[in-house]
């Protein structure tokens, strides 16, 4: 492929787009309807199996309830999920309705919740962790956002108007109709909030960056040669934006997802589950404490899983020798997430031979581009090269191990992202080539 910097147009083949003009809800429903006996998801910590037929039935019932309660296509819905079995049906139901999904982390303060709710102004907020209910309600009242709150936990019925979304009997006889997306290329399916944790709310700015993700942007992340017909397992949960994108793409493909409860992480249970379920692709996004526990267990037991084809670590890097000893046949990849860099959490692939913007950087982030001959371009200069990011508030997972990760930083402490592209005059970065992608691992050991 070749690229013209003046016209910003590629010449060469396009990535295949597999779903025509369907939106994510339509594609998920069609796959589940056509494959009722496919094992879609296993909640490993609960030994609960979701076949497509069961998942579809639950998601439609929830979608019916959300519609009756007033949720309409295009309205924002905030989800605060904490790795419960109801999380996936809720996520799919929102896609069935055509609502714009915004998944909010479950570990923020009332003030941070207030700022997010004030920014996105959701029609509804659904919570699957009762301990967070009062915090979110307080945040909504302070923000003066008149959202409807629903908590998937009957013990809070005295505090909230509450019904079990899977059992509430919908009035009427009309069959629920899955929302049909009119323009998947431009219609927003998700709102992602970058910099929503750590020091992201510090500084003079509002600390929030809202990234709109269209239906087609999500569905273009599916690669037939990468994850199709494989079993994937993840130790991250739905408070992680990347996991939400990955889940939505998995729901419309012959993939079995195995979810491990990261809040009660056990290296022994997790690894035995990988072997028991013939997992081929493994995604690990662990806290620092769990990462150390995981490495220690691997070293102590010399636990070997030969069936894994790909292992992806996020944030803190694992010891390469340990990883190859325990996963001898797997391609080991280490990924960073754009959320950690203070920019967009999602990067769109090249579409229609044009490079798409990944979004502007936030105010406290410094950026520059280094060309192959070593020339440095500032954001107001149009030049092609690798994107470098600098910030006082970024990448704790990398900075905690400065010697191990020294090659990822320049001498003036800019992070080498592995993303190749250019800035336009407005300061937006356009992706040309991905050496190491936030969505799929390209930087492999």
TrEMBL record:
GO cellular component term, pick one: peroxisome
InterPro entries recorded: AMP-dep_synth/lig_dom, ANL_N_sf
Subcellular location per the Swiss-Prot or TrEMBL entry: Peroxisome
Domain AMP-dependent synthetase/ligase: 52-145
A Pfam family assignment: AMP-binding
Main subcellular location: other
GO molecular function, one term: CoA-ligase activity
Keywords: Ligase, Peroxisome
Keyword flag Transmembrane: no
PANTHER family: AMP-BINDING DOMAIN-CONTAINING PROTEIN-RELATED (PTHR24096:SF149), LONG-CHAIN-FATTY-ACID--COA LIGASE (PTHR24096)
Family stated for the protein in its record: Belongs to the ATP-dependent AMP-binding enzyme family.
Protein name, entry field: CSON006986 protein
């Amino acid at each position: 492929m070749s690229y013209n910097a003046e016209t910003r147009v590629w010449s060469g083949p396009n990535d295949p787009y597999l779903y025509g003009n369907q939106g994510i809800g339509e594609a998920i429903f069609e796959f589940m309807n056509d494959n009722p006996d496919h094992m879609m998801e296993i909640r490993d910590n609960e030994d609960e199996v979701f076949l497509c037929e069961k998942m579809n039935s639950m998601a439609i019932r929830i979608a019916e309830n959300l519609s009756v309660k007033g949720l309409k296509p295009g309205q924002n819905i905030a989800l605060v999920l904490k790795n419960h079995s109801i999380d996936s049906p809720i996520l799919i139901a929102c896609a069935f309705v055509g609502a714009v999904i915004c998944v909010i982390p479950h570990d923020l303060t009332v003030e941070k919740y207030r700022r997010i709710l004030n920014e996105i102004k959701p029609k509804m907020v659904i919570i699957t962790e009762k301990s967070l209910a009062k915090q979110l309600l307080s945040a909504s009242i302070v923000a003066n956002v008149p959202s409807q709150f629903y908590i998937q936990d009957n013990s809070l019925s005295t505090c909230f108007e509450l019904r079990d979304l899977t059992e509430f009997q919908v009035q009427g006889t009309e069959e629920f109709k899955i929302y049909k997306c009119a323009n998947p290329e431009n219609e927003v399916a998700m709102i992602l909030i970058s910099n929503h944790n750590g020091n992201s709310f510090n500084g003079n700015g509002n600390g929030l960056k809202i990234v709109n993700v269209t239906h087609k942007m999500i569905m273009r992340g599916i690669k037939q040669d990468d994850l199709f017909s494989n079993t994937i397992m993840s130790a991250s949960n739905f408070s992680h934006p990347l996991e939400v994108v990955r889940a939505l793409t998995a729901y419309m493909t012959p993939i079995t997802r195995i979810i491990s409860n990261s809040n009660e992480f056990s290296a022994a249970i997790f690894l035995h589950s990988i072997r028991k379920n013939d997992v081929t692709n493994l995604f690990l996004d662990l806290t620092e404490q769990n990462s150390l526990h995981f490495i220690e267990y691997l070293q102590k037991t010399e636990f070997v899983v030969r069936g894994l084809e790909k292992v992806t670590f996020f944030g803190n890097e694992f010891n390469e020798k340990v990883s190859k000893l325990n996963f001898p046949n797997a391609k080991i990849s280490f990924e960073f997430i754009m959320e950690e860099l203070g920019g967009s959490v999602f990067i769109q692939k090249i579409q229609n031979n044009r490079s798409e913007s990944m979004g502007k950087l936030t105010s406290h982030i410094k950026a520059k581009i280094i060309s192959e001959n070593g020339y440095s371009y500032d954001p107001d200069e149009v030049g092609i090269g690798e994107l470098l990011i600098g910030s006082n508030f970024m990448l704790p997972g990398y900075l905690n191990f400065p010697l191990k990760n020294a090659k990822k930083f320049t001498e003036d402490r800019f992070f080498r992202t592995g993303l190749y592209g250019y800035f336009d005059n407005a300061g937006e970065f356009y992706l040309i080539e991905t050496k190491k992608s936030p969505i799929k691992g390209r930087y492999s050991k």
